[in-house]
Amino acid sequence: CGDSHDEEQDSSCEKCDFETDRCKALHELNLHPGWVRRNGRSGMGPPYSDHSGNDSAYFLSLSSEMASSSATLRTNVFLPTDEEHVCQITFHYWISQMSGTLMVGFQKHSEDIIKNIWQDSGELQNQWKENTITINSTEKYEVIFWAMVDTQRQNETVAIDDISFSKEC
Questions:
Q1: Could you tell me which residue ranges the MAM domain spans (predicted)?
Q2: Is pLDDT at 99 greater than 70 in this prediction?
């Protein structure tokens, strides 16, 4: 978890580290076209390790070498929050040099609209970064990660690793 309380014996945080194909917070990790579960040894270009520098650890990647130029990752439905118990989602992400974009959206269960709550784009990054978003909703909701790359450029990648959900999610 973002505050490291998942290192304790009694973990109250769901963490999706992509080391296995299972993650309770995500839709059984049935990867939408575009996402590839891989590690730095896969020979698919950057990144060459996960966010902690481990080249054998797994993460999700959308690469310009693939047929799809975008991919989504949707959480399961979360219960409403209140002002004392907001949902915090911490994740690591990689966006390559030029054209990658990662957005995080929020969708109330009663609506079809996905509201964009965060996004970041290339601009010569080529490094792992960390972000935490906070969600407060009076209704059931889902969180959507949406990645895009320019398939006309080589080695353009958006990757995501170690998504942690606080117990309030």
A1: 14-169
A2: yes
